[in-house]
Each structure stands twice: as structure tokens, then as C-alpha cells.
Amino acid sequence: MRKLHRAASLCVAAAVTLTACAAGSGRDAGPSGPAAAPGADESFTLTVWSNYSGRELAEVTKALESFKAKYPKAEIRHEGSQDDDKITAGIRGGNPPDVAMSFTTDNIGQFCSSGSFQELKPYIERDRVDLGQITEAVRSYSEYKGNRCAMPLLSDVYGLYYNKALLAEAGITAPPRTTAELLDFAKRTTKRAPDGSIEVAGFLPTMMFYANRPPIWAPHFGAEWTGPDGKSSLATPAWAEMLEFQKQLVDFYGYDDLERFRAGLGQEFSTDHAFHRGRIAMMIDGEYRTAFLADQAPEVDFGTAPFPTSRPELYGTAFTAGSIMGIPKGAKNPGAAWELIKHLSFDTGTIVDLANAIKNVPSTRAALADPRLEVDENFRTFVELARSDKLRGNPVTPIGDAHIKAVGDFATSWQAGKVDDLTAGLREVDRRIDEQIAKSGK
Fold first, then answer.
1. Is the per-residue pLDDT at 1 higher than 50?
2. What residue ranges are annotated as transmembrane (predicted)?
3. CB 3.0-4.6 Å disulfide test: which of 56, 70, 234, 298 passes with 52?
């Protein structure tokens, strides 16, 4: 099951040394130009690693097999359950796949800056690929400082999910549009047992639980990760407003009561997910949740909408991330690997079929507009957000997800009442992030 917003745990030091450690018989794109594409009748084998499993593994394999319409003698070996750690180990050990698919964009800065994923610019220029086919926010999270070392494979867009019955019981007829309304509606839809314990939480604010991650939240408050000088800029009113909003909800529930409630909730990608069970009335999540609800909790009557924002003019803003594909350093057949990546990135039929199969948002403008794309009322919210100019991509740094973890850890302490001075605390997080980036040498 997909966890695209999950933080991967690559070691920065290991990533920096990937270029030196990698080996293989394939020729990377270099001074002599990109590796040649295979002939139409040429026989070749491509190994693809991804972290897909189960039904999604089978559907992605179908998408890979569609490549044979152009290269009928190609053999594609798709190995699932391969996370970023395994990809890194394969590159360092000199046994990488030809194509590596990563569920998280958190590590794109490491992959690009270390050379562990080959630069794709020579291929793009040779084949005159129009990157404008891909939405701007999606392009932003698949490159680092002008080095495009990956291409997107569909995308995830995040919005508000709400339980229609629970809102109706509280006399609420439409989803919240502002964070002030979200706070009010969360209080009104919360239910407590006679002993005061939480039975239903109107909205669960616990950072790093389910999809409550800093990059997903930040756009709705207009919070930026860096300032004009490129340094971390968390000690700003927007970040403070976001954290103070969360703390208001934590204080409403009571931190200890909230922790006891959260401890009894199901895992994010299990049938016991709290929203599936009617334990939370509203949440932030990606478009893929529509498929999980249809499969695991078809009895839940829910709606989707853009996530509430701190200011009305921000409404319609959304966070996006997604799977990415790259050619690892030392890949044995980089020329054919690029042809496969190009096919998966731009063939509209393949993109639409895969989007319909695993309920992810297409990453090209043509696929978003294709009439074959299956769009019901709830999925339409995410397609419309993906088409807008308010979409925001994942912050890319050479330290992987360390900056996200730093904010998440701080937010957890803040919610627990362990931070006396919010602004001073954010300044300290800024300092630590800048220090880590400086030490990375990138």
C-alpha cells in the first residue's frame, strides 16, 4: 500500500558517497552524450525496482508491459517492495536496477546532488522533450537546483475529507473553508464518553500522525520553507500561526486525552483507519484515500474539498508529491531505461490507465484533461486542485527529509506543552537545518 508522504530514512553521509561507491557495466550520460536508445527489434532486459506490492504491484507491472508496444522484444523484470534504502544499497554495492522508482520525493535532493540518480538533461535535450507537459509543482519536486535526475510517475494531491453524517448531526451543511471554521466544526463534531474520554474527534491535529506532516500542512497557511537568501525560514508568522492553530485543538481535547485516543486508532493503511471507523469527522489526506474507502469502508458517506486555509485568498491551495523514476548510477542499460521512463512519463494512455487503476492523479496536463480519466465527485476535488496554479510541491534539500523531521519533532514537543517560546524554538530549528545543509557540502 502506498505511503507517498512517508519519510524515508536514508543516511546523508551515505548518499553523499554514492557516486564514488557505485559501479556497473552501463554507460552513464556524460561528455560523449546520452546512451543510445535500443533499436525497435532489439532484444534487451530491464530491471525495475519499486516499492509497490499486492494489487498496485500488478497494475504497475501492466503499465510497464505497455512499453512492449514500441519494443516487442523487451523483457521487463519488475521487483516490488524495494524502498529507498534498498535502492541506495544496490547503487553502493554496484548492483543497481536499470530503473528505480521511489515512493517519496523527500530524497530527491540527495539522489540528484550525489549523482546516485543520473542527470536526465542530456536525454531530454536530445529527444526535445517538452517538460511543460508536466505541471509546474510536479516538475519542482523531481529536480534539485536545475539537475533533473528523475521524472514523475503520477502524483498525490492532498485535500479535506469529511464524514457527511457526523457533520450533519452537528448541524453543519458544508465543509469548512477557513481554519477558523475548521476549529469551530472540529469542536462541534467531537463526542465524548460519560467519563470524558474522546469517542469521536472532530479533527485530529497530532503532527506526524496519518497525513499530518509539515509539508502537507504548510501551504494552507502560506508558510514557506526558505527565505530569499535560501536559508531556512521557519521563524515567521505563518509557521507560528500554523502551530498555534494545532495547539488550540490539542488544548481543547487535552493532550493526555488526545494521546490516549490516538493510541487506540488503527494504522494509516489498515481497514481500521480512524476515518473508516467514524472515529474522526474530518482529516487531511491524499486522493488515494478515495480508493481505500471504496474498498475497505464503502458504507462511509464522505465528501472531499480543498483543505481550509488561514486566509480566504489561499483557498484552493494544495500540497502535491508523488512517485518518481530515475536511472541509478551504474545502470546496465541506461539508454533503454530512459525510453521506459519517457514512456511512463508522457504516454497519455498509459498514464490514464494507471491513474484509473490505482487512483492517483495524472502528472501531465494531457492526462488530466483526458476524457478516459475516471473522475467521480470525490476524486474531482483532487483533479481540479492539480489543475490549479495554487499547487505546491515538496521542499527539496540535499539532506533528504531531515528538515521535515526537525519540524515534526519540534511540533510534537510544542503540542505536548514542552516549548515555552515558539519563535525562539523555530529559530533554533532554522539554525539546525541550515547547519545540516552546510555540513552536507551540497
1. no
2. none
3. 56
